């Protein structure tokens, strides 16, 4: 569908390459807005659409929207993860209206992410309300990885520095994995998920992630002790930022601190890519004072990983969180009621 918007902007089809170039050019350009993220999700229950407002100068605003059917024929929701983008903030309301028209969705779920060119007031003015359901974590720890290794280590706490140095004793080999290593990675993910009571994706999901993103935008990093896999993570990079999205570890040989060594290997990988920041991707959604007061006594949800992540010398940062824009009030009310029942 092509429609005139305003000021010479039109809704027009764009190539994957043009859209990805636009995302990469944004100060807060995010992996989850790349076309390949839509291709990934399209193989696991979602559709995706790239909604772009453009003029003769190119794309001026847009979003990759994931679409999912709602139960009992209630239409579908549109979800914009870590987006969208606009070259000027006055274009955002037009973007939301265009997403509605182009997708026919009952409501839009928006997670603008860190550094978004939006604020809560602008979202409220456009009719958004804070959502009762998040998909991506709102709060994270971002490590400054500028400078040399000594400068990065100096920003960490003493315990983390000590464990990183012990992880480099030579008894653990850290290397970038290949597709043939995915069965071991998936096995370790299942073990870690069962041990820590969190959900993991299917082997097919991680295989698709690997095929779509590696090696251009990501890496599978492995920590081996002999023929035993002690830790494995998938990391990704875009622009100045790298993200740690998936990870697993063994309980064996904890004295070798492979979980620290593999994160250090990821930081080294990110630096080779020219990144300045390393996002540890998800901690409890609390202010720093609450995090520090409670982390020793809690292990539920993301609390179990906060104790590990806090030692890396990063900054606790919170995005705008998750917002919903209801275009069909009846469907949206049913959605919220279903969430309450589920809880």
Terminal Cα span = 39 Å
| CATH class descriptor of the largest domain | Alpha Beta
Mean pLDDT: 94
The 3D shape can be described as: globular
Count structural domains.
2
How does this model look, in words?
The model is unreliable at 1-5 (pLDDT under 50). Helix 9 (258-272) links the parallel strand 12 (241-249) and strand 13 (277-279). The chain is of the alpha+beta class. Strands 1, 2, 3, 4, 5, 6, 7 and 15 form an eight-stranded mixed sheet that branches. It has a seven-stranded mixed sheet with strand order 9-10-11-12-13-8-14. It has twelve helices and 15 strands. It has two domains: 10-136 and 320-342, Aminopeptidase, CATH 3.40.630.30; 139-318, Aminopeptidase, CATH 3.40.630.30. It has helices at residues 16-25, 35-42, 92-103, 120-125, 149-154, 158-167, 182-196, 203-213, 258-272, 288-294, 303-309, 329-342, and strands at residues 10-11, 47-55, 58-69, 76-81, 85-86, 107-111, 129-130, 139-144, 173-176, 218-225, 228-238, 241-249, 277-279, 315-318, 323-326.
């Amino acid at each position: 569908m092509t429609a005139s918007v305003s000021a010479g902007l039109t809704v027009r089809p764009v190539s994957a390459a043009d859209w990805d170039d636009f995302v990469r050019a944004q100060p807060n350009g995010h992996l989850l807005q790349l076309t390949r993220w839509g291709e990934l999700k399209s193989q696991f229950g979602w559709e995706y659409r790239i909604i772009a407002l453009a003029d003769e100068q190119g794309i001026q605003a847009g979003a990759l929207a994931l679409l999912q059917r709602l139960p009992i024929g209630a239409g579908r929701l549109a979800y914009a993860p870590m987006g969208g983008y606009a070259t000027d903030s006055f274009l955002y309301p037009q973007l939301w209206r265009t997403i509605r028209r182009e997708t026919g969705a009952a409501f839009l779920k928006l997670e603008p992410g860190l550094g978004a060119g939006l604020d809560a007031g602008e979202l409220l003015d456009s009719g958004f309300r804070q959502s009762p359901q998040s998909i991506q974590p709102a709060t994270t720890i971002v490590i400054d990885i500028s400078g040399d290794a000594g400068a990065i280590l100096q920003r960490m706490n003493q315990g983390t520095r000590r464990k990183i140095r012990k992880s480099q004793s030579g008894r653990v080999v850290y290397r970038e994995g290949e597709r043939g290593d995915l069965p071991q990675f998936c096995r370790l993910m299942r073990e870690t998920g069962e041990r820590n009571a969190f959900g993991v994706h299917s082997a097919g999901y991680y295989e698709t992630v690997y095929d779509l993103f590696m090696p251009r935008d990501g890496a599978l990093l492995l920590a081996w002790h002999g023929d035993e896999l002690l830790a494995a993570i998938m990391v990704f990079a875009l622009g100045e930022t790298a993200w740690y999205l998936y990870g697993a570890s063994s309980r064996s040989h904890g004295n070798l601190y492979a979980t620290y060594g593999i994160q250090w290997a990821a930081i080294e990988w990110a630096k080779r890519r020219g990144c300045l920041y390393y996002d540890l991707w998800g901690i409890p959604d609390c202010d720093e004072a609450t995090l520090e007061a409670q982390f020793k006594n809690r292990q539920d949800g993301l609390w179990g990983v906060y104790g590990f992540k806090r030692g890396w010398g990063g900054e606790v940062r919170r995005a705008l969180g998750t917002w919903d824009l209801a275009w069909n009030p009846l469907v949206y009310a049913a959605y919220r009621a279903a969430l309450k029942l589920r809880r």
